[in-house]
């Protein structure tokens, strides 16, 4: 009887060892209903995920503007299909050092609502150039990205504007002199400002007697022109 009991104990240990060995290296998925759902697949590590699109931006200052060139290249080794919900294929946002949005391209332009499908061959590029003409001197952060449903290909970089002829100002709006100019109480004195085409359109949204903020330029003879109003 003693020998039979010893044999049973050894057999039990052997069976447990075999079961543990069979389960090594797998993770069992438990469904929310408490039942076993099979073997959990090994997920790829983050460093193993290879980007299919390579994006980059270049910036330069020229003629009182910041020119931003945005490039997106297909490096997937295969055809890449992209679907754009409108005619605007790329967009940008400029932030100040506080993280406040200064401007966004799609806020200022109109685009068609037709869906556009693009088949990007391997090593083929999408090139987009933006001309930003109303930034004052200072430090910013710019992010540029595709508007495609499948890929964003976002690039973020610091932007240092140092050669701008734009200035930011504010004053009390006294009234309109003619369709092309207005009068402001600016830095303690009444002064006439010319209006750009954009500023003329925005003027209808303003109320006389209120304080307004704006971006302006100044000519060699001291004539100030409001390029745009900063309307929240």
How do you describe this structure in short?
The chain is mainly beta and 232 residues long.
Task: Tell me the layout of helices and strands.
Layout: H1 2-23, E1 28-30, E2 36-39, E3 53-62, E4 65-74, E5 80-84, E6 90-95, E7 101-104, H2 105-108, E8 116-120, E9 125-132, E10 138-146, E11 155-161, E12 167-178, E13 181-186, E14 189-195, H3 197-203, E15 211-218, E16 224-229
Parallel strand pairs: 14-16
Antiparallel strand pairs: 1-2, 3-4, 4-9, 5-8, 6-7, 6-10, 10-11, 12-13, 12-15, 13-14, 15-16
Describe the structure in your own words.
This protein has helices at 2-23, 105-108, 197-203, and strands spanning 28-30, 36-39, 53-62, 65-74, 80-84, 90-95, 101-104, 116-120, 125-132, 138-146, 155-161, 167-178, 181-186, 189-195, 211-218, 224-229. It is mainly beta and 232 residues long. It has three domains: 2-39, no CATH class; 49-161, Immunoglobulin-like (Sandwich); 167-229, Beta Barrel (OB fold (Dihydrolipoamide Acetyltransferase, E2P)). The strands form five sheets. A five-stranded mixed β-barrel has the order 12-13-14-16-15. The radius of gyration is 32 Å and the shape is elongated.
Distinctive features:
single chain, 232 residues, mainly beta, Immunoglobulin-like, 3 domains, 5-stranded mixed beta barrel, 4-stranded antiparallel beta sheet, 14% helix, disordered N terminus
Structurally, the number of domains stands at 3
Q: What is the residue-mean pLDDT, rounded to a whole number? A: 83
Strand content: over 45%
The CATH superfamily title of the largest domain: Intracellular proteinase inhibitor BsuPI
Order of helices and strands, N to C? HEEEEEEEHEEEEEEEHEE
């Amino acid at each position: 009887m003693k020998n039979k009991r010893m044999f049973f104990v050894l057999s039990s240990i052997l069976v447990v060892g075999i079961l543990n060995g069979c389960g090594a290296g797998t993770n069992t998925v438990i469904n929310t209903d408490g039942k076993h759902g099979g073997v959990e697949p090994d997920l790829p590590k983050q460093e193993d995920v290879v980007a299919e699109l390579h994006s980059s931006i270049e910036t330069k200052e020229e003629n009182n503007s910041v020119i931003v060139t945005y490039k997106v290249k297909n490096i997937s080794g295969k055809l890449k299909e992209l679907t754009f919900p409108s005619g605007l294929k790329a967009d940008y946002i400029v932030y100040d050092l506080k993280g406040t949005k200064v401007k966004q391209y799609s806020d200022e332009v109109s685009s068609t609502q037709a869906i556009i499908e693009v088949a990007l061959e391997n090593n083929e590029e999408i090139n987009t150039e933006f001309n930003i003409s109303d930034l004052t001197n200072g430090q910013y952060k710019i992010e540029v990205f595709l508007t495609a449903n499948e890929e964003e290909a976002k690039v973020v970089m610091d932007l240092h504007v140092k050669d701008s002829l734009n200035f930011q100002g504010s004053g009390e709006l006294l009234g309109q002199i003619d369709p092309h100019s207005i009068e402001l109480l600016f830095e303690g004195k009444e002064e006439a400002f010319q209006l750009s085409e954009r500023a003329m359109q925005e003027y209808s949204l303003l109320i006389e007697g209120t304080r307004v903020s704006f971006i302006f330029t100044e000519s060699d003879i001291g004539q100030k022109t409001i390029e745009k109003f900063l309307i929240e």
